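Q: Sequence in, structure out?
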Amino acid sequence: MAISIIIVNYKTPALTVDCLRTVFTGRQAIPTEVIVVDNASGDNSQAIITAAFPQVKWISLSYNAGFARANNEGIRQSTGDVVLLLNSDTLNVDNAIENCYRQFIASPYVACGVQLLNADGTPQISGNYFMKGGLNYLLPLPYLGKFIKWLGNVVKVEKPNVPDSDNLVEVDWINGAFLMVKKTAIDKAGLLDADFFLYAEEAEWCSRLRKTGQLCIYGQYKVIHLQGESANEAFGSSGKGYYNLYDRKGLQIMLSNFVRIRKQFGAGWFLFQLAAYTFNIPVLFIGSFFENGVRLRNPFREFNLAASFARNVFRLWRFVPVILSNKPYFYKVL
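A: Exactly. Output:
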């Protein structure tokens, strides 16, 4: 088998069917195995998906294992020399999967991605660069994040990502919505870290894959990513990207990011970032009060949002001992 495509499904049969439709309408001139791993959806996902595409290999897990563990099970049962982790909320455009595979398999790269697009055709961040201590995780912070971004522009710090590309670009880590990896690299780097439930696992994995060889984005190939739709639909959240820090999904994002910081950059950077997030609590309350007052709006209008952020940070503090210990633990709060 040339390539094994692994799609994780959790209560999103309609998205998964749409994704598979674009996968199977490609030329399929290469031997392709498609594996759907279901995270104990408890609905009619299997009936809907396998009725539409009986050729898929269906794997049912007994609990909601999240992204890393579900993909690991798919990788273990795959037969391809190359595996593609593909989100259920993606759409294969102009046979991008096969075209990407053909260029990738003939290259020295160990992992690759493509240029992800929003539904309206605008580019999404698809490739990223490591920043010391994971400092880019400070950018979503209200007020403090804007100041850090402004300061970075002043001192001309290189951007931590590739905002758009039309050709090959070497990167440090790749968006997990479309992540193609050679089995030989997985044999050396290992599977995804099973401590992660959702978010940041692909960044940590790429840090280990990066030690076995180079990673790249093939920007000439495009895949539509309905960013966040699978998680939002499954967990009743809203918003795209990773700037939502206020609900249960936001807590999961924060927790996973901090676990990654501890694993990849060490305890010192973990504690530094935790201090920054904690410091941002009064900054958010005070900043929103004065900003709304200056704009002649109710100065307390953002206090519920600030309180939600504060609750998530305080919940994060409960995990500090186990994160610092760096012992195996399943960081799931959704």
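The chain has a mean pLDDT of 93.
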